[in-house]
């Protein structure tokens, strides 16, 4: 082997030194191998799964420039900005650049001075660009958001169809197509239209385990309900609230703002400048809530969106999954919340029926809406249903959706379901819901006569329910996977394997009652302010913000929340230790290492608590006056976590009783003590997680302090 070959870095080395990540996730490594070996790949990974690295790492290892085709300008800018922070030579070409800037990028390209170049598909197809590329050494083509080639998809981009040209013009260059939203039909379409039949398919499934799904029936107070949700669980967090109409967007944004939240509207009726301005603030400031129509979000890959709320029903599960998918891209816990009501359904149906599309198109849209409604109504795990819709099976209920956490009121629908399914079977699996309901109700109908279906055994056996209840039941059966809609055969309803045990009476079926009262007792999802050392966490965020403002980039481009959280938890004391933190690569260590270390050292927990007897004594005094820890924090203008630290020192010193400090029931204290016994690594985090985040770190710290007594 020549010396040159030996010194060439491996994919692993690039991952660690350039990006600062310890190991590859899921199928990343396999995909990278496939591309390095000169093959094509189709990559299906959930949002936040790490698709970008699948082409960025090969781009750094292979000679020449990787051409990345991406549908949106904002996305390109963000990615290039983030890549440059890692010290990677990258650029983009699109209409936002001046002629001089374009010329500069073009000359860098010809001189092989770029590892990655991002272009929009329409730009790529211009003769000038294609001829430039033919003079360039190209390492690979990456086609991001590949589902945009699908005509039935919701993000169809006509220019994407022409991308098959790449294969014809550059047959030797490996291609990698990536998407987070492709059901089986769309996958087949991507392969066919992009001529990817030789590609290896890598499927990581679509699950987003860190996202909690919640869907509430609107009982006329959706707005207040939303406000409570934000204040209780997401104060100070970044979030998105989706509404159906522009008017509603304006109303809700104003209302939230009046309630003291940093809420900004975003919709197509606003001026370009104002919209742009609000988007920038959302990206750059902390804790901004964007209230928007669905026009917002495509091309936004802000990683630390902590919640996505829908005040209206999305038109399809695809839309819902994509919109909610904008939460928690950084892999940290995030919440989705939706309120839907009958009004939404009526409005959506009107929009859809009044649309200009063909009958076939409208029918498909109608089925998609039905499937979305089905998701709203099921009583079983939402995540299982979502994943099933995209063709993924999940064995067990997830434990992280409203139905898992707070099971809804139900009725025994076994018999009715048998009738409904059997009616599908008896009429030959060739009809839609309306026809089936007519048969069940024994309607005097010409078509039914024509097919002789007034003679089947299910004709007229369903008079105990009305038409609306039957169609609700069908929707529920479709959503739960007992029946399916065959889009290729005009939306006829068909049986699945799962229907058999119901028909045979081997399985009972329980369904959500139509209108139930909604007393939520959901557990709170973890918020980031709940890290063990609040002061340090805040100080790191502030420092990050300063750096970001200096450079005019969003904060997360400097470091992600996850990286700061790890710094807070591990409190590295040297550059060497800091380099071990996820997300700290060589370039960022060099650029930011010293200054972040300084922040950490000045907030080190151990140092801060030495010689604090005076301030501790003051807290204890307040406690003796029967003030709660929250009240003491307010009175002293200190954080709650500091007060709890004082109290835990007081407990160790025998000056404070645990019962006075934390005011929990004896049984709860027993549970927490038990959790400490079970998780004896001494870390609060383990116990915090074992208790599902029910108790603050401060409370846990006090209990731990009492264990020695
Ligand atoms: P996608 O494009 O699939 O939505 P990204 O490529 O943007 O996801 O990755 C999501 C986040 O996960 C990014 O912040 C990325 O840096 C991070 N990430 C990706 N791969 C890894 C890895 N192997 N280890 C740690 N973090 C990773
Ligand atoms: Zn679940």
Based on secondary structure, the structural category is: alpha/beta
Q: Which spans of ≥5 residues are poorly predicted at pLDDT below 50?
A: 1-5, 515-530
Bound molecules: adenosine-5'-diphosphate, zinc ion
Radius of gyration: 28 Å
CATH architecture of the largest domain: 3-Layer(aba) Sandwich
Number of domains: 4
DSSP, total strands: 17
Structural notes for this entry:
The chain is α/β, with parallel strands linked by helices and 709 residues long. The protein folds into four domains: 2-203, P-loop containing nucleotide triphosphate hydrolases (Rossmann fold), CATH 3.40.50; 211-405, P-loop containing nucleotide triphosphate hydrolases (Rossmann fold), CATH 3.40.50; 410-512, Arc Repressor Mutant, subunit A (Orthogonal Bundle); 526-707, HRDC domain (DNA polymerase, domain 1, Orthogonal Bundle), CATH 1.10.150.80. It has 37 helices and 17 strands. The strands form four sheets. The protein has a seven-stranded parallel sheet with strand order 3-4-2-5-6-1-7, with helices on both faces. Strand 10, helix 14 and strand 11 form a beta-alpha-beta unit. Bound molecules: adenosine-5'-diphosphate and zinc ion (ZN).
């Amino acid at each position: 082997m020549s010396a040159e070959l030996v010194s060439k870095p491996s994919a692993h080395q690039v991952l660690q030194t350039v990006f600062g990540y310890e190991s590859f996730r899921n199928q990343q490594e396999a995909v990278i191998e496939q591309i390095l070996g000169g093959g094509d790949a189709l990559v299906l990974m959930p949002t936040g799964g790490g698709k970008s690295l699948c082409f960025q790492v090969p781009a750094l290892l292979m000679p020449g420039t990787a051409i990345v085709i991406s549908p949106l300008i904002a996305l390109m800018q963000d990615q290039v900005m983030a890549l440059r922070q890692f010290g990677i030579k990258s650029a983009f070409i699109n209409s936002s650049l001046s002629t001089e800037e374009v010329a500069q990028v073009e000359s860098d390209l010809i001189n092989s001075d770029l590892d990655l170049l991002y272009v929009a598909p329409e730009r790529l197809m211009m003769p000038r660009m294609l001829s430039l590329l033919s003079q360039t050494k190209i390492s690979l083509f990456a086609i991001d958001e590949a589902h945009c080639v699908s005509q039935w998809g919701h993000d169809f981009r006509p220019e994407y169809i022409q991308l098959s040209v790449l294969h014809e013009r550059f047959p030797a260059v490996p291609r990698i197509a990536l998407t987070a939203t492709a059901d089986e039909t769309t996958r087949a379409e991507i392969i066919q239209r992009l001529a990817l039949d030789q590609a290896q398919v890598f499927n990581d499934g679509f699950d987003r385990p860190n996202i909690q799904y919640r869907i509430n029936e609107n009982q006329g107070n959706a707005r207040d309900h939303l406000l409570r949700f934000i204040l209780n669980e997401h104060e100070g967090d970044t979030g998105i609230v989706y509404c159906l109409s522009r008017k509603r967007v304006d109303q809700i944004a104003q209302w939230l703002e009046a309630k003291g939240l940093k809420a900004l509207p975003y919709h197509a009726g606003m001026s370009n400048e104002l919209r742009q301005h609000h988007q920038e603030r959302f990206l750059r400031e902390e804790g901004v809530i964007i209230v928007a129509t669905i026009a917002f979000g495509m091309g936004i890959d802000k990683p630390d969106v902590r919640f996505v709320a829908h005040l209206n029903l999305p038109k399809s599960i695809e839309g819902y999954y994509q919109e909610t998918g904008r939460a928690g891209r950084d892999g940290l816990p995030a919440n989705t919340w939706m309120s839907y009501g009958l009004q939404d359904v009526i409005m959506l149906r009107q929009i859809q029926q009044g649309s200009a599309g063909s009958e076939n198109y409208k029918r498909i849209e109608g089925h998609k809406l039905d499937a979305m409604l089905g998701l709203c109504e099921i009583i079983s795990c939402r995540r299982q249903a979502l994943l099933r819709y995209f063709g993924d099976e999940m064995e067990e209920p997830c434990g992280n959706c409203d139905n898992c956490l707070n099971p809804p009121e139900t009725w025994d629908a076994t018999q009715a379901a048998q009738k409904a399914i059997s009616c599908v079977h008896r009429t030959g699996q060739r009809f839609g819901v309306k026809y089936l309901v007519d048969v069940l109700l024994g309607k005097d109908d010409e078509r039914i006569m024509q097919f002789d279906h007034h003679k089947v055994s299910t004709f007229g056996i369903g008079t105990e329910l009305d038409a609306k209840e039957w169609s609700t039941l069908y929707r529920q059966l479709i959503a739960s996977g007992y029946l399916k809609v065959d889009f290729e055969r005009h939306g006829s309803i068909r049986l699945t394997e799962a229907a058999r045990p119901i028909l045979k009476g081997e399985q009972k079926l329980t369904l959500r009652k139509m209108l139930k009262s909604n007393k939520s007792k959901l557990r709170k999802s973890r918020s980031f302010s709940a890290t063990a050392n609040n002061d340090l966490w805040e100080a790191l965020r502030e420092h990050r913000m300063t750096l970001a403002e200096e450079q005019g980039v969003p904060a997360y481009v400097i470091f992600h929340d996850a990286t700061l959280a790890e710094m807070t938890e591990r409190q590295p004391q040297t550059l060497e230790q800091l380099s071990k933190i996820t997300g700290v690569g060589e370039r960022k260590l060099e650029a930011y290492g010293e200054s972040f270390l300084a922040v950490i050292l000045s907030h080190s927990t151990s140092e801060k608590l030495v010689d604090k007897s005076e301030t501790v004594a003051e807290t204890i005094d307040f406690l003796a006056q029967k003030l709660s820890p929250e009240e003491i924090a307010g009175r002293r203008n200190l954080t709650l976590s500091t007060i709890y630290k004082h109290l835990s020192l007081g407990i160790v010193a025998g000056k404070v009783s645990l019962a006075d400090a934390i005011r929990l029931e004896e049984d709860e204290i027993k549970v927490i003590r038990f959790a400490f016994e079970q998780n004896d690594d001494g870390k609060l985090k383990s116990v915090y997680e074992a208790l599902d985040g029910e108790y603050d770190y401060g409370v846990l710290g006090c209990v731990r302090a009492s264990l020695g007594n």
